[in-house]
Amino acid sequence: MQSLVIVAHGSHLNPGSSAPTYDHADTVRATGAFDEVRTGFWKEEPHFREVLRTVEGDEIYVVPLFVSEGYFTEQVIPRELRLDGWDVSEWDSEGLSADQATLVAEDIDREVHYCGPVGTHRAMSDVIVRRAESVTGDPDVGEGFGLAVVGHGTERNENSAKAIEYHADRIAERDRFDEVRALYMDEEPEVDDLPEFFESDDVVLVPLFIADGYHTQEDIPEDVGLCEDHTEGYDVPETVDGTRIWYAGAVGTEPLMADVILERAADAGADLGTALDDVRETTRVATGD
Amino acid sequence: MPEPTSDATTGEGAAAGGDPEAGPEVPDIDLPSDAFDAVLDALADRDAGDPLRFEGFGVARDDDATGEYRLDPADGDRRTGLSERELHEALSERAAEVTDWYAFERVVGEFGPRRAFLRWLEDADGATVATRYAALAEGIERAWGELKITATVTDRGERRYDVRHADDAGVPADELDRYDDPLDARELVKLDEKGRYRPLKTAPTLAGGWVFPDLGPRDAYEAVETVYPATVANWHREREGELDVTHWRETMERQSGIYGVVKTWDRGEGHEHVDWVAEACCDDSQCLKRREWGYDDETDLDVDGGDGAFPCREPCSVVVSAARKWTRLESEQPRTYEFELTPSEKEQVEEIIDAVADGRIDEIREADTKEGANRYRTRFLRAKLFDDEGNLGGVPTEPDEADEADEADEE
What we know:
Chain A is 30% helix and 20% strand. Chain A is an alpha/beta fold. Chain A folds into two domains: 2-120 and 254-282, Rossmann fold (3-Layer(aba) Sandwich); 124-251, Rossmann fold (3-Layer(aba) Sandwich), CATH 3.40.50. In chain A, strands 2-1-3-5-4 form a five-stranded mixed β-sheet, with helices on both faces. In chain A, strands 7-6-8-10-9 form a five-stranded mixed β-sheet, sandwiched between helices. The relative contact order of chain A is 0.16. By secondary structure, chain B is an alpha+beta fold. Among the domains of chain B are: 108-236, Gyrase A, domain 2 (2-Layer Sandwich); 245-329, Alpha-Beta Plaits (2-Layer Sandwich), CATH 3.30.70.2320; 343-410, no CATH class. A five-stranded mixed β-sheet of chain B has the order 5-6-7-9-8. In chain B, a hairpin with a 2-residue loop joins strand 1 and strand 2 (57-61). The radius of gyration of chain B is 30 Å and the shape is elongated. Residues 1-20 of chain B have low confidence and may be disordered. The interface between A and B is medium-sized, with 25 and 28 residues.
């Protein structure tokens, strides 16, 4: 019996924080690729500490719904899941290449496949592009557009910037958008000065965050100048210093994220049948005609 | 074997129609083909002569591999050489026992927490099939946190479950919002009845007005586990004598990052601070879990752990987050401030604290000035006692530098 456990941060304060996790779990569930799909949280219930005891299967894949390798994926989650013998070297990663580690979870005395975070998987680049399609309503968006991929930066976690750069570089190589830039909230180049970094009149701004919350709904819109105060709201697109900015909100809310979760499990050996193709199809942006 | 009981429920959820002398009537059950086929499959997987046991009888393939079956009633005459048709007849006469086996062995399945919970709902490890089916025909009610779960049986021996808020007991299902997918419970538990976010799912603030009127066994379990995550798993471990309790000290020692500071709150000077935490956060008025953790494995707390059906096995993330705040706040040293209050004002301050702590603010009527925590009364107190900087009695929070110098001299 094959089980998927999606682990995410959750929130004590924001009721919407768990929504993307639940949504993607439902998408994966609908594929039928897993006999069960469970969700566990750091700030909600079931907690990381107790989620595995709700799991019935004997082939268990744990996928962290986090944007980068770091404190949560390397310390908190393995500790709270009680992965016996965990050491970050199990992943053999410089910050971008964590794939999976198979360890016994002491809580249930069964093996689990502990996967790398969704945010650093190569398929995440496709989700960022898909997010740009969603927010512009144009499945072919690219020509005449710039793309800004935005993250925290190194202040909290040096791997955060690595993930942003990795995806920005990969998308740039596709020559789909006129320009692609990695911008940060707490280091140069800063998202505050976004229009200075782009020549394009239209720029899609995709924050590499899992859920919408303080950073994506208050910080970034105000820093970029989409609004004076987030309570005023803003339009999409909103013109700032002559640049039309298409603000996408957290990339993690994009339905195609479910695909990355599946990719992580597949990389760790899960048998998915046609689920990957199914998800790519069902989450596609309508052409609008 | 536990002694069969005539009442398959706990005290609070009595089986309806229960004159134990007359006994509720055992319903007629038609043996469904899926249950009969499952019996044949199970027999095919067993050696000839190795009986499949039901309550009160066993069934086996005959030894001589003739494709015939035999039936062994516990206190009756063995019947051998039964054709499949004759076996079906015999089992149809015992359809309650066969469908009971099928419900738990094939529908519910082996997974420990789910199986134990669904058996507990109808006291399947205590009461006989006849007693349970009679009670199920009337509906067996169980409480789980703020949930009321009513188990019934169809005339095909299938279990069905009605899951709703206990406050909605007795309300016709068509007057409540109907749901059939247990995962929809995720939305039902998100906000309390005033629309406020519930960060703790076991807080006694579950909103009502909805019902899952007709769930199968697996979905009933999922609905309960969605409303109260992991509570069945932990209850099951406790029943098995395997609950892994992690006490306060160990939980705080484990914290890292921004929560690492909480371990410094334990200074080897007793556990009064943890008593206060538990009284603040873990009381039954705040959380329906029954607190099983203490200060450490040798030291209980001095406050009540509550009466909930399901255990709390370690300080939760809400407690850890609050403890982080208190660790900082409680590192401050007390100071002496001097305020002048009338006796009524002192009592009013106490009433305001009580009203906030007990969540009574919304109950206090706008014009009820008898209540100390009434808004007008409180605004009056602020108008009278606060200075322009918001200082109570005009007394600044931080003493001026001269005072600080004095204190330094005294040390």
